[in-house]
Queue: 3 jobs
Job 1
Amino acid sequence: MKINRIFCIGKNYADHVEELAHLGPGTDHRPDGECVVFMKPPSAVVQLGDVIPLPKGRGDTHHEVELVVMLTGGGRDIAIEDALDSIAGITLGLDLTLRDLQTTLKNKGKPWELSKSYDGSAPLGDFKPFLEQDLQAMEFTLHVNGELRQHGKTAEMLYPVAQQISILSQSWLLEPGDVIYTGTPKGVAVLKPGDHCVLASPSIGRFEWHCE
């Protein structure tokens, strides 16, 4: 299925929110129905076998490993209890972020797109068919040059996948090929030319990229 739109969910793991100092430890992280949403264009995708092109002269590029789902459609105003029926496949991906630029944009009260939505900012693994696996009982990791950088547990999401789909459907008519990056756990860090990234999950598979 061809990728249509790429929706991204921000601030979906409390430990990542804390690590970026958006909220301090001890702050109430319970979901309030207003999750952060931004988008990437299809040209952001880096397929398996391609090299991740790190932007030059634009500050640090951080990795953010995420569970990613692709939709069969779904329409508008989807109830949470029906949302998983809209999923066609699952995989892992990286939401690459120009962190220095993002910080500057945030401090100026400007949107994040320049730091999040550039071409090559969304390495994406091959999709595995969704066969009603428990999306809130998965684990996934990112190793860079053999070092464990991130370890995600979807049970720790502030906004579970079904709720994310329901929230998005309130503003968009969800269509076949729509993709959702579902949020990243703590451990984000800088990628450098020559780094080798390995994304893996027992439930999904293993995906690798080289950075240049």
Note: The radius of gyration is 16 Å.
Job 2
Amino acid sequence: MNIGIIGAGAIGLLFGSYLSEADHHITFLVRETSIAKQFYIEKNAQEPQQITSDIVSNIADLKKMDLIVIAVKYHHLTQIEDQLNSLPQHIPLLFIQNGLSHIVFLKNLKQETIMIGSVLHGAAKKNYSTVQHSGIGPTYIGFYKGEWHSINKFVENNNDQFPLILTPNIEQMLVKKAMLNCLINPLTTIARVTNGELIVNHSYKVILRSMYDEMMEAFEEWKERLPWDEVVALCENTGANRSSMLKDFENGRMMELDTIVGAILERAAQRKQTLPILQTFYLLLSEINKEGDSNG
């Protein structure tokens, strides 16, 4: 298939690399083609491997794609809305943003088929052109609207390091990931520690458990879907990783605060529930985010 990827951040490059290995023809759409002539992926501390792909900067170059993956962060989506609506309406779009807010954005698009992905990999940019794959996990894909006759072929054509799973309830997957991100990302950012420190350090573990308990009180139906042991296991399995929010903070970028933490707080408020610890972290990080926004 001819697959376009809008955005060359960590997850965009990760998708491009593994989809290229699955014999798809990959075209990255970036703002400036002069910054990088080629992209690379680093797996298991091995030497970086070149990602076989084309790199373009004009949306018109994606008008003959079989699928387009939108890999920019949520707060950049409004900047490309007109570009997306300029594409042929029959081309399926796959959105792989963190959080929940992008679901509302999708209502404004004209495409006949729109899919949403929930990505559970660990990945980080080493530099502008190289991504490091730091943790293997599934990517769940579900339909927001429409249908795509090639979806089964697309999902089945993957490998053990990049599993794709079609799910009938993609929103539940997004909520679960947002909850996990709410538990890990704000605390690691404020404490400036790796994920593993949240369960190694006694004080951080007490805070983490308190956040978990208040979240389960607000969302009682999630007690079985998201047990405490799963939170601990995620911290253990990604122990050396720095959360995406922490990495954004360290690099002076805007953190994905509203679409993750803000969205969960809003859902709690709709139930007339409060999450005091998470709300406190949200307010603290919102002030820090103003600085990241002013830095571009």
Note: The chain has a mean pLDDT of 93.
Job 3
Amino acid sequence: MPVLGELEQAVMEVLWESPTALPVRDVQAALAGDRELAYTTVMTVMDRLAKKGQLLRELNGRAWRYRPAQSWVELVSDEIVALLATGTAEQQHAVLDQVRERVR
């Protein structure tokens, strides 16, 4: 189960790498090397991520500046915990055992 769509992931990666909040234009420019994206496409994705609670935004003059609501580690661990919560205690332990084996 993917946590984010492909473009959402690309946007988040740009923002996770930035020490400061960024406007849409800067995110679009950072993504321009990989693909050609319209400003409105990037703006829509970032607006949706903000509505989902993945991005925080602040008004700076007339433009919104965006930053991640949580780190990559926090996002992934929240998803893992949510997935584990759907299983029984036995299933949870089995998954954790298998993960431990794979990361060694």
Note: The chain is about 60% helix and 15% strand.
